[in-house]
Design brief:
The protein is α/β, with parallel strands linked by helices. The protein has 2 domains: 230 residues, Glycoside hydrolase/deacetylase (TIM Barrel), CATH 3.20.20; 77 residues, Immunoglobulins (Immunoglobulin-like). It is built from 9 helices and 18 strands. The strands form 5 sheets. Strands 1, 4, 5, 6, 7 and 10 form a 6-stranded parallel beta sheet that branches. It has a 5-stranded mixed beta sheet with strand order 11-18-17-14-15, with no helix packed on it. The chain has a 3-stranded antiparallel beta sheet with strand order 12-13-16, with no helix packed on it.
């Protein structure tokens, strides 16, 4: 009996998954699609506390990933994109009350040029007493529309100003609008970040790509229980790797680490469908029109998911 229990516990820890969440605005009713009300934020924090979740710094998760450690299933990481004043005015107090760590990703130009809705350098310094400050670009551009030189200019300028103003070396980066391709990712990696987080639905375990960590958005109306149920699906995306030139997704080839006969397939604007899996291979012909410039292709096996972002890249190659 003891052996059986130990085996079950081993199986549970082997596939343990953490969850990274991202917020944007707090208590700002002008932008409901990117806002989290103070009441909703408290409900979420209470849920974490009463259901045994442990909110840990992003650094603790990344360190564990680098050491290939098993990630506890109850770990939650909280991040905030864009240095909106609403975090300082309506969100920070609750983070302090619950003693929840966070990482705030800074849109440098907004603070540098004193845009009305954004935090000052002094406010960011005060916030850094309670959480880490990280990098979110200089000009918050659509990075897939910039050339390699333009991308490098944005990174270099933004990082120089960030370090000079805050006396902090940012360890982590996230893409503006959550938009990236392999080309953009390779350039971002040149700047020595310890990890990069995206805005794709999913979870994180020891098999996750440290430079492509999935985050779920907690903005607008969200189902927290559902998002916490997601697990990481180990998958090797062979095809597609880029946005198809004619905008039609003709084939899908993905290797998954699960012995199943079928999986779910979601394509933005096309909905869900059931697809076959043979010998851990998804290799099917499609004729799906990609209806948006930014599309998510999701493979699901029960509650395990893997996401591929297909986005038009002005300077990318087929």
């Amino acid at each position: 009996m003891k052996v059986v229990l130990l085996s079950l516990l081993f199986a549970m820890t082997l596939w343990a998954d953490a969850h990274i969440f991202v917020y944007h605005r707090f208590g700002d009713s002008r932008y409901p699609s990117t806002d989290t009300t103070k009441e909703e934020l408290k409900r979420q924090f209470d849920y974490f506390r009463t259901h045994g979740y442990k909110v840990v710094p992003l650094e603790k998760l990344v360190t564990s990933l680098k050491k290939k450690k098993t990630i506890p299933d109850n770990w939650v990481v909280l991040t905030i994109d864009d240095n909106f004043k609403s975090f300082y005015d309506n969100g920070l107090a609750l983070f302090k009350e619950y003693k929840y760590p966070f990482s705030l990703f800074v849109y440098v130009e907004a603070t540098q040029k004193k845009y009305p809705d954004y935090l000052s350098w002094n406010q960011l310094k005060e916030i850094s007493k309670y959480g880490s400050l990280e990098f979110h670009s200089y000009a918050h551009p659509h990075m897939t529309k910039l050339s390699d030189k333009e991308l490098e200019k944005d990174f270099t300028k933004g990082l120089n100003i960030f370090k000079k103003a805050l006396h902090v070396e940012p360890k982590y980066f996230t893409y503006p609008y959550g938009e990236y391709t392999d080309r953009v990712k390779k350039i971002a990696m040149k700047y020595g970040f310890s990890a990069i987080v995206n805005q794709n639905m999913g979870a994180v375990n020891k098999y996750s790509d440290i430079f492509d960590l999935d985050r779920n958005a907690l903005v607008g109306k969200t189902n927290l229980k559902l998002l916490l149920s997601f697990k990481h699906l180990r998958a090797n995306w062979i095809k597609p790797t880029t946005f198809p030139k004619n905008g039609v997704l003709k084939a899908l080839h993905v290797e998954i680490k699960k012995d199943v006969k079928s999986a779910g397939l979601y394509i933005s604007g096309n909905g869900w469908e059931k697809i076959p899996v043979k010998n851990r291979q998804i290799n099917i012909t499609l004729n799906k029109k990609l209806k948006k410039g930014r599309n998510r292709v999701i493979i699901s096996v029960k509650n395990r998911i893997s996401t591929k972002l297909l986005i038009k890249d002005k300077y990318g190659t087929e």
